[in-house]
Design brief:
With about 260 residues, the chain is α/β, with parallel strands linked by helices. Helix content is about 35%, strand content about 25%. It contains 8 helices and 10 strands. Strand 4 and strand 5 form a beta hairpin. The radius of gyration is 18 Å and the shape is globular. The chain starts with a helix and ends with a helix. It binds adenosine-5'-diphosphate (ADP) and magnesium ion. Magnesium ion (MG) binds next to helix 2.
Length: about 260
């Protein structure tokens, strides 16, 4: 039931990110690297899209272009049907490395963007309280990043992104540096947040299991230059817990994608 209403909602959506026929060539002195070639993807409202592919296939390049931090050599990228000309508050980002401000407390990190927007203090406090609760770190509001574990830092980074209420979440291997148990926990955590808030999400990873667990739709990229090898809707249960990873239907997706990546 939920799965089909999810799809209808996505179809009727007005907000979207679109990359059409993207080619990206890096030019460094005499060396040319074609990082992407004729790559097209569509991200619709409320979707959780994972982009998966081998290391070096151009995933980060693609995400940076969606963020407006880099630009395609050919092709167009639009957000809500407007060409991307640079970064914007409509797109929040979390990367693999810990990007919290080390000199600010957890609370101050969450407040940072809200202060920039000149949001009144009581409203800031309300938002900060809400996201501290969501990430389960209310007791760590006065801690500094160096006092937190890797998993806690990434939870704060995600909360900081959400606090700014961006229309789109862009994440590049945000759990890539975590140990497997923390990583699995944060996957459940992120999927639960998505289920509750339904932010339109683009999540880049080389980890097939992670992609299948999180996504409503997966793009499998070929090895460099990155092209779309397959677009795979993931029709697994809406509420996902770790035991899903032990099911046959999960493994079927896993195998399908592994085969596509190995074929390169
Ligand atoms: N700024 C850059 N200058 C030159 N080459 C780059 C640059 N950024 C990435 N590349 C190259 O483009 C290819 C794709 O890189 P990247 O997007 O980081 O891949 P992925 O994130 O999938 O591992 C790689 O071969 C990489 O070396
Ligand atoms: Mg990368």
């Amino acid at each position: 039931m939920l799965e089909s209403s999810e799809r209808i909602e996505a179809k009727m959506a007005s907000t979207n990110i679109s990359a059409e026929h993207i080619t990206k060539v890096y030019q460094a002195r005499k060396k040319q690297t074609v990082a992407m070639q004729d790559c097209s993807i569509q991200i619709l409202e409320n979707e959780f899209v994972c982009i998966v592919g081998a290391s070096g296939c151009g995933k980060s390049t693609l995400l940076r272009m969606l963020a407006g931090l880099d630009f395609p050599t050919e092709g167009t990228i639009t957000v809500n049907d407007k060409p991307v000309t640079g970064p914007g508050v409509d797109r929040g980002m979390v990367f693999q490395g810990y990007t919290l401000f080390p000199w600010l407390t957890v609370e101050q990190n969450l407040q940072y963007g809200l202060k920039l927007k000149k949001m009144p203090k009581p409203q800031q406090d309300e938002i900060v309280d809400k996201y501290l609760k969501i990430i389960g770190l209310s007791n760590f509001r006065n801690a500094y990043p160096h006092q937190l574990s890797g998993g806690m830092k990434q939870r704060v980074a995600i909360a900081r992104m959400l606090a700014n209420s961006p229309e789109f979440l862009l994440m590049d291997e945000p759990f890539g540096a975590l140990d497997p148990i923390t990583k699995a926990r944060l996957q459940v955590f992120l999927r639960e947040i998505w289920r509750e808030l339904r932010p339109t999400t683009v999540f880049v990873t080389h980890d097939i299991e992670e992609a299948v667990f999180l996504a409503t739709k997966i793009y499998v990229l070929s090895s460099r230059p990155g092209r779309v090898k397959a677009e795979i809707p993931v029709n697994l249960t809406y509420k996902r817990t770790l035991d899903l990873k032990d099911t046959e239907e999960f493994y079927a997706y896993y195998q399908q994608i592994e085969k596509l990546i190995q074929e390169n």
